[in-house]
Amino acid sequence: MHDELTFDKERTETIRELSDLLFVVQQMGHRLADETHGDNYALVQELNETLHHARTCMATLEEQEQPQEPGTR
Q1: Do the Cβ atoms of 58 and 12 come closer than 8 Å?
Q2: pLDDT band at 21 (very low <50, low <70, confident <90, very high)
Q3: Is 16 exposed, middle or buried (CB count within 10 Å of its CB: 0-12, 13-18, 19+)?
Q4: 56: which of 17, 19, 30, 69 is 20 to 30 A away, CA to CA?
Q5: What pLDDT, on a 0 to 100 scale, did the predictor assign at position 1?
Q6: Chain mean position to CA 34
């Protein structure tokens, strides 16, 4: 049986892993933009904007997972 502490640790690990994965995907998106020309460039740029937004959301989640002073969460 999982207790709340186990779920907290699993959630924190999942957030970290997803953040790491998004970082790699975002790097690949930048590389794709460097390699893309013509009509497809706008679509690749839109993709990179979406990936940037996802990373911003992940950064917010990571900040919220940081230990905080009692009574500040």
Answers
A1: no
A2: very high
A3: middle
A4: 69
A5: 52
A6: 22
The domain segmentation of the chain, as residue ranges, is: 4-60
Tracing tokens 């999982």 back to the chain, one arrives at 2
**Assigned token pair, 40:** 């497809």
Q: What is the pLDDT of residue 4?
A: 83
Residue 43's SS3 state is helix
Report H helices in the chain.
4-35, 41-65
- Residues 22-39 as b or e (16 or more Cβ within 10 Å = b): beeebeebeeeeeeeeee
Q: Which residues contact 22 (CB under 8 A, 6 or more apart)?
A: 51, 54, 55, 58
What does the block give as tokens for 35? 């390699």
**How does DSSP classify residue 71?**
T
User: pTM of the full predicted structure?
Assistant: 0.77
